[in-house]
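Practice problem: Rho GTPase activating protein 6
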Amino acid sequence: NPAPSYSTFKPPLKHYLLYKGDFTWNSMSGRSVRLRSVPIQSLSELERARLQEVAFYQLQQDCDLSCQITIPKDGQKRKKSLRKKLDSLGKEKNKDKEFIPQAFGMPLSQVIANDRAYKLKQDLQRDEQKDASDFVASLLPFGNKRQNKELSSSNSSLSSTSETPNESTSPNTPEPAPRARRRGAMSVDSITDLDDNQSRLLEALQLSLPAEAQSKKEKARDKKLSLNPIYRQVPRLVDSCCQHLEKHGLQTVGIFRVGSSKKRVRQLREEFDRGIDVSLEEEHSVHDVAALLKEFLRDMPDPLLTRELYTAFINTLLLEPEEQLGTLQLLIYLLPPCNCDTLHRLLQFLSIVARHADDNISKDGQEVTGNKMTSLNLATIFGPNLLHKQKSSDKEFSVQSSARAEESTAIIAVVQKMIENYEALFMVPPDLQNEVLISLLETDPDVVDYLLRRKASQSS
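Answer key — C-alpha cells:
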C-alpha cells in the first residue's frame, strides 16, 4: 500500500498556523517560527527518523528510479563469506592471540558502540582517579593537625578521626554517570526521560505513536527517540584518519595512490581493533594512514551507501541533470544515522583533498604543488568501497564483466557528484522539514511545539 500523503493533513488552527509557501509556524505560545535550511545533523533523532519516512514517500511518488526502494536497516547481519569463515577458523586455532575486533570487518553501528563504550570507560577511570586524588588531598590537612595535638587529647582525636573520613569522602562519592555519557542514540532528552518539572514535555511521555501499523518493538523504539540532536556517529578511526590527512597530507602528491608499508598498516589496524587509544602523530606516514582508511571502508560488512540502495543510487544517473542532486539527497536521508554521519565526514574530507589537487601560489609567493587528486580520481579510488553489491560467484563476474565495467563507471560518476556537492546534500530544505512537522503533528503535537521552540531559539 502506498504511504499516506503527509501534505493532505490540515493542522488544527487552535494550536498552530501554517502559512503555505512561507513555511512559517506559530507555536502554542504564539511565537512565529520560519523554517530555514539546516544541516541534517542539527535535527533531533525523532525528526531524522520521520525524515526517512517522508523521503521514502517522495522517492516513491516523485522519482522514477525504475527499481524497488527500501529503507536500509541499521546493523543488518550478513552471511559470512568463505574468506571470513577461514579467518575465524584460523583464530580458533590460535586462541592465545585471539581477540574480539573493535573496528575492522564489523557493522558500522557496532564500531560506533565500541568507540562509545571505550570513551565511557576512559571517563569513568578518569573520574575514579580524580575522586581518589581529591580524597587524599582532603586527608592531608587533617594529618598535619593531628601531629600537633597532645597525647592527652587522644580520645578526642580518635573520635574526630572516625568522623573526618566520612565527612571528607561524602562529597567525593562518585555519582552516577551523567545523562550526557549515556549512549547518545537513546539518551538525550528523550520522551521517556522527561522531567516532572517540565509539564509540557511531561505530556509527551504519554503521546501516541504514528497511526501506521507498527509492532510493539517498533513502538518501544520510537518512544525512546531523542528530542534533541544526537552525538555525531562517526567511527574514531575514520575521524582520526581524516584529521591526520587534513593536517599532514593535503600537499602529498598521489595520496591514496602511492603504496604504503604493509607491516606498519597491519600494526595500526591491530591497535584500532584492540580498542587501543591510537594517536596519529606527524611521524605516522601519510600513505600508511591513507591505506588504513581505505581498508576500513573496504572491509565493512555492508558498504557505507548500503546494498539495499545500490540500484537506486546508480539509477539517479538516468534522471535529468537538474533532478539528480535532489534525488541523491533523498536517498542519503534514507541511510541510518551512523552511515549518514560517516558519509558526511568522509565526503567533507575528500572535498578538501580535491580542492588541493592543483598547483597554486601561497600568500608569500611560493609555488605549492597540488596533490593531483581531483574529485574524479578520488571517486575512482573510493567509489567501489562506498557503493557495491555482493558478487554471487567468480563465474558470474567474468560472464558479466562488460556490464560490471559500465556499473563501475556509474559508481564513479555518482560518488564524484557527491564529493563535489556534499554540502548541499546534507542540508534539509524548509519544505521537507515542513512535511516532517506535519507528520509529527498528527500524533505528537506537544513534541512539535517543543521542536518549534528549539528551532526558534537556534535561529535567534
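Discussion: Residues 108-148 form the longest helix (41 residues). Students who identified this feature from the C-alpha cells alone can consider the problem solved.
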